[in-house]
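R.M. (postdoc): so does anyone remember the format we settled on? I'll just put the structure tokens first.
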């Protein structure tokens, strides 16, 4: 796990890199590649040779293919370790990513890697010594990177009127380090996670006009009914999305207007959280998070001045010069507005309302917005100037297995392994398909952790198990009989329907 979460070492392509682990991983990877070309071996999973003298080119391989290659030599790495090694090498400008050379828009989209490294010779030991010896090329470039990072000044735009805006935005984001399901699983502290510990990156695709599914989809593959159709060039892996769309501004709005859409539980808020911290850690601007349900009828402008700024500065009354300095950050294009859950606004036409509010000094902010697919599709024209990306499900089996491993890593690894073995049985295809959705997989892990009573066959069965676990967690404080539980479930159903039918405050019920 330490590969991904070393904050003081800087970040690259959306994932915090561990350069200590990356050094060892890169040495194993490059040793295998140099041996591979030295021995003139052939492999269907990897193609590599020398070009232009001492430049090593890998012209075709996936992360899995490179991981398989390392198994042929002294040490072996998994795909995630390969990813960390490559990203460290790219970050230190030792490795040149050559994917999509002829088409900048698709650079780093592909799962197939194409890269080159310039060595001093073609001798394996000489190259490894040049790069990894104490005081060698790795150390030199790592030190230079640290020095450059330390020299990045706080500009007048980030620090004005005695206010360190970078620090304030970081402090305001602190509460968003936790996984959103923590609020759902509040009964058990062992089920609470910080984002870095549990996050498994999701791929995204550029949205195209939805088309009706003409194929017959089996019940075991039902999630395909909701998956968007796309060409491979429209697909962005998580790191590529952060690097290209967020940092480089590839796309029709150059990164200024972005919508992330997905089904309930698809990971939209989690994706927005990773974007927020990536912007902050890479000094790309000042991320300001707004949960749109918090607006409660206020405009974005009024909420920023009356709520966010007041809380950020920790004052009773914001001074006029502080408001002006704050607005000036927007005018100078330093602010990113991260607008979460447009579908939870107390408005019949939330997208139209957002469009009408991105005016005045607020309009200069870069905006990343999340929304459920059904709400977006119902009124997408209201924000037609946004470029839209849809989150894909977890890939089965790799990402589902990784999530389960992370969930049970510090608690009961054996129980997690039993869950995976049970889930991966051939007759479990329907539940395998269900838990490609991140929220449903979290619910499955939580119920299995509580009782491992077996796997449900349907989505309804999964949620029923979760409801039963909630009652068990609350037994000590609120003991209930089976009849009381049935009555409470029915009453909560009526309450939910009443909330949905209301025109305002659908997601904020008063206590009474």
């Amino acid at each position: 796990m330490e590969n991904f979460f070393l904050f003081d070492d800087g970040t690259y392509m959306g994932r915090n890199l561990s350069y200590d682990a990356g050094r060892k991983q890169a040495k194993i990877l490059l040793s295998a590649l140099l041996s591979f070309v030295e021995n003139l071996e052939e492999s269907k999973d990897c193609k590599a040779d020398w070009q232009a003298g001492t430049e090593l080119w890998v012209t075709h391989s996936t992360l899995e293919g490179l991981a398989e290659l390392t198994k042929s030599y002294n040490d072996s790495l998994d795909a995630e370790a390969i990813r960390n090694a490559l990203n460290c090498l790219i970050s230190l400008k030792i490795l040149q990513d050559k994917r999509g050379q002829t088409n900048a828009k698709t650079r780093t989209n592909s799962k197939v890697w194409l890269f080159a490294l310039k060595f001093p010779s073609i001798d394996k030991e000489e190259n490894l010594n040049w790069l990894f010896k104490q005081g060698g090329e790795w150390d030199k470039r790592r030190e230079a990177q640290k020095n450059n990072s330390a020299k990045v000044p706080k500009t007048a735009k980030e620090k004005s009127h005695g206010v360190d805006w970078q620090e304030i935005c970081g402090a305001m984001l602190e509460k968003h380090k936790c996984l959103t399901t923590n609020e759902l699983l509040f009964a058990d502290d062992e089920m609470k996670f910080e984002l870095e510990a549990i996050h498994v990156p999701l791929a995204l695709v550029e949205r195209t006009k939805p088309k009706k599914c003409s194929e017959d989809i089996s019940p075991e593959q039902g999630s395909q009914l909701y998956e968007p159709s796309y060409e491979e060039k429209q697909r962005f892996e998580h790191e590529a999305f952060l690097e290209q769309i967020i940092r480089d501004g590839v796309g029709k709005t150059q990164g200024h207007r972005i919508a992330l859409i997905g089904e309930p539980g698809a990971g939209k808020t989690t994706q927005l959280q990773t974007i927020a911290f990536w912007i902050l850690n890479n000094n790309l601007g000042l991320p300001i998070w707004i949960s749109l349900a918090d607006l409660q009828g206020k405009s974005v402008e009024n909420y920023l001045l009356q709520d966010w700024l007041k809380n950020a500065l920790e004052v009773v009354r914001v001074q006029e010069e502080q408001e002006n300095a704050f607005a000036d950050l927007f005018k100078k294009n330093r602010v990113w507005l991260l607008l979460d859950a447009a579908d939870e606004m107390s408005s019949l036409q939330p997208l139209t309302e957002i469009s009408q509010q991105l005016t005045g000094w607020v309009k200069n902010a870069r905006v990343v917005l999340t929304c459920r697919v059904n709400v977006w599709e119902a009124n997408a024209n209201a924000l037609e100037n946004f470029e839209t990306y849809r989150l894909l499900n977890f890939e089965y089996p790799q990402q589902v297995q990784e999530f389960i491993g992370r969930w049970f890593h510090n608690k009961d690894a054996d129980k997690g392994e039993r869950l995976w073995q049970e889930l991966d049985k051939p007759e479990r295809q329907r539940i395998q398909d269900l838990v490609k959705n991140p929220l449903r997989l979290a619910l499955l892990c939580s119920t299995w952790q509580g009782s491992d009573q077996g796997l449900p066959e349907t989505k309804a069965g999964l949620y029923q198990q979760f409801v039963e676990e909630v009652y068990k967690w609350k037994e000590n404080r609120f003991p209930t009989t089976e009849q009381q539980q049935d009555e409470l479930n029915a009453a909560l159903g009526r309450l939910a329907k009443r909330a949905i039918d209301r025109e305002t405050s659908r997601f904020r019920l008063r206590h009474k």
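R.M.: ...and that's the designed sequence above, right after the tokens. Also worth knowing: Confidence is low (pLDDT under 50) at residues 1-16, 101-109, 152-157. The longest helix spans residues 19-38.
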